[in-house]
Amino acid sequence: xxxxxxxxxxxxxxxxxxxxxxxxxxxxxxxxxxxxxxxxxxxxxxxxxxxxxxxxxxxxxxxxxxxxxxxxxxxxxxxxxxxxxxxxxxxxxxxxxxxxxxxxxxxx
Length: 108
Fold this sequence. Notes:
The protein is of the alpha+beta class. About 55% of the residues lie in helices and about 15% in strands. The protein is built from five helices and three strands, in the order ααβααββα.
């Protein structure tokens, strides 16, 4: 690991807000749900799966959408959300590994 180059500060400054906005338990749960479903889901489905009110889910979905992590598509009275930035889903894999006592680092 010592021979890896440090990430450029500009990259870190650009990515930090994305990580900060994703790093909320409900937002991570929403991302996990969308990843597990493998396709877009509407607010009602997300609300039901995550066990929260529509108002709370909508607030968290808006934050993820505004950051470019999710896309939103309106169809009639329904808004469908999908993962726009698949690389953010790597955070979920790291969380799973950490929770099971594994390292997030591939080389360890």
